[in-house]
């Protein structure tokens, strides 16, 4: 158990400090460590296929690696980066047990619910911090609600979402999830997240989610790549203002006399 605990700490360190945590995880999955529970779930994710229409990147593992790299770019926006990054890594942990082929299509209904339970068991093997575990599991359980809400699907549990999860964090994880595909369109997915927050009347949270790199108002004190440019000097306009029209000519049809 001590060895597994050390591995867990290494994964945690990778998630919290690496800008591209997928590099470490892709090496890790090739090790013998993944042959034992609970890390063996990663091998199951690697062998679980997804719909090529929605996930041209391939397996659940391939998708997850793209998601954690997107999450690493945005973890500073999270209220709890550790919770956020572990939720990103485990968000589709429920797909191996729920993925089926129905009428020629690959489906994984309720993988979010199954994933929350599996994530609880996974994390409980390494930490007794139930508050941390429950926060991770809540993000996993509700990460599909972006789709449910924007498409007006009947699978949402809005009461549970509002009661048990932070909608801001769900939206941030959802953005990374939707960007974790080889055919993702950033502008389109940002609109989807904004629509999700609008439908839930989350105004303040929406602005904090959407105000990321490339969308913030620039801080003039920060480097912006144009420091070497010559400033444009526009001469001050010293011309006196035109006198205001007075009398009936101001509001009526009477023509103003020459000034």
List the helices and strands and how they pair.
Layout: H1 2-17, H2 22-28, H3 40-47, H4 60-74, H5 81-90, H6 95-98, E1 100-102, E2 105-107, H7 111-124, H8 130-142, H9 145-150, H10 158-164, H11 167-179, H12 186-199, H13 203-210, H14 248-251
Antiparallel strand pairs: 1-2
Key terms:
259 residues, mainly alpha, two-stranded antiparallel ribbon, 14 helices, 2% strand, globular
Describe the structure.
The chain is mainly alpha-helical and 259 residues long. 54% of the residues lie in helices and 2% in strands. The chain contains 14 helices and two strands; from the N terminus they run ααααααββαααααααα. The protein has a two-stranded antiparallel sheet. Strand 1 and strand 2 form a beta hairpin. The longest helix is centred in the first third of the chain and has 16 residues. The protein is globular and about 45 Å long. About 10% of the residues have low confidence.
């Amino acid at each position: 158990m001590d060895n597994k605990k050390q591995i867990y700490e290494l994964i945690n360190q990778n998630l919290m400090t690496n800008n591209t945590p997928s590099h470490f995880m892709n090496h890790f999955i090739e090790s013998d460590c993944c042959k034992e529970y609970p890390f063996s779930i990663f091998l199951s994710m690697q062998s679980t296929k997804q719909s090529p229409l929605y996930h041209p990147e391939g397996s659940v593992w391939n998708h997850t690696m793209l998601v954690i790299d997107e999450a690493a770019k945005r973890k500073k926006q999270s209220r709890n980066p550790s919770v956020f990054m572990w939720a990103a890594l485990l968000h589709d942990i429920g797909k191996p047990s729920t993925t089926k082929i129905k009428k020629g299509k690959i489906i994984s209904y309720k993988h979010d619910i199954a994933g929350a339970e599996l994530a609880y068991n996974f994390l409980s093997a390494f930490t007794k911090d139930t508050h941390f575990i429950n926060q991770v599991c809540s993000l996993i359980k509700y990460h599909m609600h972006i789709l449910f809400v924007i498409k007006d699907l009947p699978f949402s549990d809005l009461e549970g979402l509002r009661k048990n999860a932070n909608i801001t964090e769900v939206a941030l994880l959802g953005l990374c999830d939707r960007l974790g595909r080889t055919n993702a369109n950033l502008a389109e997915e940002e609109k989807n997240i904004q629509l999700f927050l609008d439908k839930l009347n989350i105004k303040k949270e929406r602005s904090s989610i959407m105000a990321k790199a490339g969308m913030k108002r620039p801080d003039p004190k920060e480097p912006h790549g144009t420091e070497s440019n010559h400033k444009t000097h526009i001469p001050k306009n010293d011309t006196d203002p035109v006198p205001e029209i007075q009398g009936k000519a101001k509001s009526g049809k009477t023509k103003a006399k020459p000034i």
